[in-house]
Amino acid sequence: MNQYEPVIGLEVHVQLKTESKIFCACRTAFGAEPNQNTCPVCFGLPGSLPVLNERVLELAIKVGLALDCEISPKIKFDRKNYFYPDLPKAYQISQYDMPVSKSGYLIIRTTAPHPNPLPRQIEGGQAQGEGRVRVLQERKIGITRAHLEEDAGKLLHEGITDGSWVDYNRAGVPLLEIVSEPDIRSPDEAYDYLMALKSILQYLDVSDCNMEEGSLRCDANISVRKKRDEKLGTKVEIKNLNSFRAVQKAIAFEIERQTGAVEGGETIRQETRLWNEGKQETISMRSKEFAHDYRYFPEPDLVPFSVPATKIEDIRKSIPELPFSRMGRFQSEYGLSEYDAKVLIADKKWADFFEECIKEKVNPKLVSNWLQTDTAGLLNERKIEISAAKITAKTFAGLIKLIEKGTISGKIAKEVLPMMLDTGNTAEAIVKEKGMEQVTDVGALEQAIDRVIQENPGPAGQVREGKKQAMGFLVGKVMQLTGGKANPKMVNELLAKKLS
Amino acid sequence: MESKINIDQVAKLARLSLKPEEKGKLSKDLENILAYVDLLQELDTSKVEPTSHVLPIENVFRKDKVIESGVRNFVLDHAPKRDGKFFKVPKVIEGL
C-alpha cells in the first residue's frame, strides 16, 4: 500500500461582478477592443489616485459571510511589488495582513475516499442509470482568507515573433482571492471543492465564474508526506489550470511525480510548475530566486476601511438560500435521494427550473430523473443552457403529466422531449399532432397481439409450454408493430392471458 | 561591522544596475536609514494605536459607475513601442 499522502490547498481567483474596475471607473466587460478599458489610474500614471469601488467591498463581504469567515474590523490594502510587463505600476494593489475576511470553512460532499472523514456519513441514493450506490461523505475544508486585489493585464504571444503584445483591459479588474487551508487530500476532493465553491458564488450572484473569460482561475499547492507525519512536505505551486478537470488531472500527475521522486530518494524543490494540457504533465518554470520577495507595504494612496456591524448585517440578510441548505431541503421536502439533490442544486439555474416544475404539481422524483438524464444530455448536445432553452418549466411539467397519466410511455416521451427543445411546442400539441398517444384500447391491442402470435408461432408455442423467456420477445414485437405506442403493461397482461 | 544590506539583492529587485562605487555609497545610505528606524524603535509606542495611513480618514468609496476615459491613443502614442492597439514589449514567455 502507498505510504505517502498528498496535501493540497487551492487558491481561487474570482472576478467580482461589477460594472467598473476596483479602483477606477473603467468598464470591466469582457470582449472590448485591446486597451479600450483603460485610464490614468489603471495605467498607474503619475498624479492619478485609486478610489475603492463600494460594490466590490460589499460583494467580497457577501462571499466572506457565505464561507463563514470573520469579517475583519479593519481592512487595508497593500502594494505587492514586482516587475512584469502585464503590471503597469510595477506593483499590484492587494491585501497582505488585513484581508477582508479570514478563518472560514466550506463543507463539501464528496465521493472521494478520505482517511479521516467527519463522523457523520450519509447513505447516498442510487445514481441514475448506473445502478450503484454512491456514498457521499461530508468534508470540512478550511478557508484561510479571502482578500481583494486588482487583476493584471494580458500578454499575447501568438501571431507575433519579435516581442509580445500587452492589453491592459484586465488591469484593475476586481478579484477576490479565496485561499483554502491545506485540507484537501485527493484530486477528486479538489474537484468537488471547486464545484461547491463555484456553486456558492453563483448562488450569491457575485461572479459569472466563467473560466474561459478568466472570471474564475485556480492555482494549486501540492506536497506529499509520509502518512501519519505531522510535518508538511515541500510544496509545489501549479499554475495554468484552465478548467476544473485540468486541476484534477494536474494534481493527480503531481502526486505521482512527487511520490515517485520521494521514493527514489530525491528532495522536492519548492517551485512553480505549469500544467501543459497538450502533454498532460506539469513542467518546471525557471524559478527566479527572489521571485517571492514582494516587499509588501501599506498602499499610501488608499485609506483604511472599517465596515459597520449594521452594514454587515444588511449584507448578511441579502444572502439567499445557499446550495448546501437547498440540498437538504430538496431531500426533506421532495423526497429526493442525496445524490439526486446534490446534482440538481449544483447549478442554480437547474435547481430553479426544478422547483418551477414542482409548482405544477408533478412528481418530484420523476422530474428529477427526466431533468438529470434526458434533458441534461439533450441540452449538452445542443450546447444550450437550460435558462436559454425553448422548453419552460411549465411545458416540461406538461410532458411529465402526460407520462404520469399514461397518455404516453417513457419511450415516446424520449421522442417528444427533443421536439419540444427544438420547436418550443408543448408536449400535448406534439403528441396530438403526431398521433403518439399510448394505445390503451383493448381491441386495438388484441388485434396487434393476435398478429404477432400468428407471425411468430415458435416463440408463442414456447410461452404456451411455460417458457416465460420468450414473452419479452413477443412484447417487443407488439411494441414494434404499434410504433412503441402500446401500453407495455397491458400488452404483457393480454399476451399472458392469450397464451395461458 | 558586517553590512545589514545585501545591496546586490536590493538592486536586483529594484531593477537597478549599479557601479561598484555606487554600491558602496548606497549601502551606507541605506544602513543610515535603517539605523534611524532602529532609533525610532526605542520610543515607547505601547499606548499608540497602530496606523497605516497618515490621514485620520477612512471609508472613502466611489460608486460602481462606468466613465470612459478615452486616453488609449494618447497613452499608446507615448509608449516606448506601440503596435496598433497594443503595447509592444520584448518577448516574455515563462516556462513552456
Automatic annotation (TrEMBL), chain A:
The keyword Iron-sulfur does not apply. GO terms for biological process: glutaminyl-tRNAGln biosynthesis via transamidation; translation. Coiled coil: none annotated. Keywords: ATP-binding, Ligase, Nucleotide-binding, Protein biosynthesis, Transferase. It comes from the Bacteria. Its EC number is 6.3.5.-. Residues 352-499 form the Asn/Gln amidotransferase domain. Belongs to the GatB/GatE family. GatB subfamily. This is Aspartyl/glutamyl-tRNA(Asn/Gln) amidotransferase subunit B. The gene is gatB.
UniProtKB/TrEMBL annotation, chain B:
GO terms for biological process: glutaminyl-tRNAGln biosynthesis via transamidation; regulation of translational fidelity; translation. The keyword Protein biosynthesis applies. It catalyses: L-glutamyl-tRNA(Gln) + L-glutamine + ATP + H2O = L-glutaminyl-tRNA(Gln) + L-glutamate + ADP + phosphate + H(+); L-aspartyl-tRNA(Asn) + L-glutamine + ATP + H2O = L-asparaginyl-tRNA(Asn) + L-glutamate + ADP + phosphate + 2 H(+). InterPro entries: Asp/Glu-ADT_sf_sub_c (IPR036113), GatC (IPR003837). GO terms for molecular function: asparaginyl-tRNA synthase (glutamine-hydrolyzing) activity; ATP binding; glutaminyl-tRNA synthase (glutamine-hydrolyzing) activity; transferase activity. Keywords: ATP-binding, Ligase, Nucleotide-binding, Protein biosynthesis, Transferase. It comes from the Bacteria. The keyword Nucleotide-binding applies. Its EC number is 6.3.5.-. Belongs to the GatC family. Heterotrimer of A, B and C subunits. Allows the formation of correctly charged Asn-tRNA(Asn) or Gln-tRNA(Gln) through the transamidation of misacylated Asp-tRNA(Asn) or Glu-tRNA(Gln) in organisms which lack either or both of asparaginyl-tRNA or glutaminyl-tRNA synthetases. The reaction takes place in the presence of glutamine and ATP through an activated phospho-Asp-tRNA(Asn) or phospho-Glu-tRNA(Gln). This is Aspartyl/glutamyl-tRNA(Asn/Gln) amidotransferase subunit C. It comes from Candidatus Danuiimicrobium aquiferis.
